[in-house]
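Contributing: when you submit paired examples, paste them exactly as shown. First protein:
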Amino acid sequence: MIKSFQQFYRQLFRDQLFVIKAGGRIITDINARENLIANIQELTHDNINVLLIYGGGEAIDAAMLEAGITPTKINGRRISSCTDIKIIKKVLAGDLGFKISESLVKAKLPSNVFNAIPPHWAHSLRRPNEAGMQRFDGTLIDINDKNIRDHFGATNLAVMPCLAFTDEGTALNINADNVAVEIASATKANKLIFMTDVDGVLVDGTVQSVLTTREIEALIANQTATGGMRVKLENCIAALKAGVKRIHILNGFKKDSLRNEIYTSDGTGTMIVRSHEKEIYEEEKEAK
């Protein structure tokens, strides 16, 4: 039974683009990181194109505290100074980037690993000054979906941190979730996948296997979804409206969670679809 599901999904997803966002904790944990790379290797073996975007919140905070700097955040959003960005670049492009490269080499997985989003893919726009301080964080703009998709004519896997350059060549820190959502939306990716430290969306203590945008809106309205999860789910709705086909929220610390979500009928986390597509998904399962 499992084999038949695998064959069905391998055919369904061939040559499609998956945008995967991995939290920094998954990258710093060797077991979680190497399991993620192994799962991605299986996807690329099946001719699925994967864009892996990673953050590094906890690792950045730890490096800043070690340097005697207290991280500045407003409503959970990092405010980066000229001193902060030097540490952020070292952690993201240096420390975490090398960890990923080491795992890719160990797995013998060909890939293109960037130390920032390529300038011909997108630029960043600096956020307004904060209390007179010039900021080195921003938003993503000028996304060129054609250049991104053309890149995958030569490789099945590209990896990059949540750093992007302004038109003048200054690197800015961008929220990794936002980077993933914006690029997945611009390219109309088949899947946007969040590898997190939670099992998915919980309702009354139970992980929901499939949720529609209408159901998500209800969870936000009745305050079942709050805080960081609410923000993530609001981003998911926006991405679906922009053309992303399906979105998944998975626990990256569970072995083979990515593989099992893609290649089995019930998955391991929460899949979010447009309200009218839940029936289509059920039909796909029956067609297997």
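Second protein:
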Amino acid sequence: MSGGQQQHTAVCRALFQGGASKGVHRYWEMSRYQPLTGVLAIAIPYAGICAKVYAEILEEAQPDALKALPRGTSSISTFFFVRLPDSWVHIKNYTGYRFECGLCSGAVLGFVGLPTLGYYLETAFNEGNYSEVSGLLTIFYILIATLKYWLRLKLLWLYLLIAPFLLSGTSDIQLTNILRFLSEDIVPMPLRTGNLTNPETWSHLGDWLGMLLTDQALPGIIATILLTQIALVSTAFLALALFPLISKKFLGRFGRTIGHLVLVVIRSTPEFILVYVFLQFWGVIHAAGNHSSVAA
């Protein structure tokens, strides 16, 4: 392996270990033995997202059917026989999309120790076994591309039935970890180490918050807003350029099939893999070296 390739591999390893292992080291240690933590890490935010989107879908449905209901119709009957059937197609399509996102999130969770596809990707990546990486990615792309063939409502009960048996590991809840997190880990450092009845403790808290705001929060917020705006504009241009790949107005059936495969590869490739690919094109910049020093 050449010196440039070794440097790129070292940077990617630093991104894996510094960005993932150090940032979520306690989660990593727990998720090795408790896969349920990975399930909850996906289920909890997805529940909030789906609840919001489902509510918006129901609110945007046409109210004509509601106006035709007789007076005294119960809310439950209205929901199941009027509102839900009217919005079912949109809810089903969004649920399928969110499931695809869940597959990608599950793969990424493998980078912090869960035995998902991402775990084996991370192992092959760190060992420099890029042929195995490409093989695993191909399997993942096929999984996403064939989603509509095996994700069927009639099979959902079967998946739910066998899933708990395939989820290895224990699901014991460590109460001491929860209490330590609530009573120590999230408490600001000046309050954790000082006397709450001492005015100097609160003065130190103000200084600490000011330092946190000026040195980290404000620069981070500004950088995040700028990055998000640039990413959204780039997304708009890329979406405008790529949507013809699956549009009947531009391509035939064969062309749309190829376009679908291209979009599957684009949207399903884990971010860490994309980082490595971009490093191959543009090389290592000074900021990436900082990741390497942090990981050390």
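If you have annotations for the second protein, write them as plain sentences, like these:
Confidence is low (pLDDT under 50) at residues 1-5, 7-33, 287-296.
The radius of gyration is 24 Å.
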